[in-house]
Write a structure and sequence with these properties.
The chain is α/β, with parallel strands linked by helices and about 240 residues long. It has helices at about 15-30, 40-50, 65-75, 100-130, 150-170, 195-200, 210-220; strands at about 10, 30-35, 55, 80-85, 130-135, 175-180, 235. It starts with 7 loop residues before the first strand and ends in a 6-residue tail after the last strand.
Length: about 240
């Protein structure tokens, strides 16, 4: 009989928000899920849900932390099949009031953290012919102007460019790299300006997405049903920003 080994996923930011939603769905679907956190209280909650050996404290602004966390996962599981990168700061405010330091913070938190994670995970995900999922924001492919989130959306646009370049590099190794771009997804800890009922009423489908809908899209992209999906930006936004 051929042994089927449990698939292993690393979800950065898996202790809250969309990352937690993805981590919980993958765990319920039979994956061995490891998550990362930065604050001690979030770590305690993650350890209680998944076990202390599957909750890892790390700051992905530091390449050495990224390498350490990935190393811990591989040491524990002897494999890494999927990476879901669900961390990245958010900022809003009029462009004329946005400091240059905010642009730097958005780029470092949303793009450089991904670079550090990619560098750490690359050989292991290649070995398993696995998959990555990153997170953007609705409207990236249409280059819609943003009056109050220019720094944040600019960083996500850079991340999308990186994701597609990375997807081409990894495809020859049987590895799939894709992005999910949500619209509004109410959840605990969501930015207050994303919870506006007035904005939600403007979504063409009639309301915001649930965490389960976004997590389900991530699970599908990581599944055997999506083995020919490469370098795509899947919007889960109900038509927002079309």
């Amino acid at each position: 009989m051929i042994e089927t080994r449990q698939r292993v996923a690393l979800v950065t930011g898996g202790e809250q928000g969309i990352g937690r939603g993805v981590a919980e769905l993958l765990d319920a679907s039979g994956w061995s899920v490891h998550v990362t956190y930065r604050s001690a209280d979030k770590g305690e909650a993650a350890a209680e849900r998944l076990g202390s050996e599957r909750a890892h404290r790390g700051d992905f602004l530091r390449p050495d932390d990224a390498a350490r966390v990935v190393g811990e996962v591989v040491a524990a599981e002897d494999r890494l099949d999927a990476v879901v990168h669900a961390i990245g700061p958010y900022a809003t405010g009029p462009l004329v009031e946005t400091a240059s330091s905010t642009f730097e913070e958005m780029y470092r938190g949303n793009v450089l953290t991904a670079v550090h994670l990619i560098d750490a995970a690359r050989p292991h995900v290649r070995a398993s012919r696995g998959a990555y999922v990153f997170f953007g924001v609705a409207g990236l492919d249409r280059w819609r102007a943003r009056r109050v989130t220019a720094a944040y959306v600019g960083a996500k646009a850079a991340l999308l460019n990186l994701v597609r370049a990375f997807a081409l590099d990894e495809a020859e190794h049987g590895v799939r790299v894709n992005m999910i771009s949500p619209g509004f997804v109410p959840h605990e800890g969501a930015a207050p300006d994303t919870l506006s009922d007035d904005l939600h009423e403007q979504i063409p489908i009639g309301g915001p997405a649930s965490l389960a809908e976004v997590a389900g899209a991530a699970r599908w992209l990581l599944s055997e049903e999506a083995t020919h999906v490469v370098g795509q930006n899947l919007e889960v936004a109900g038509g927002w920003m079309l």
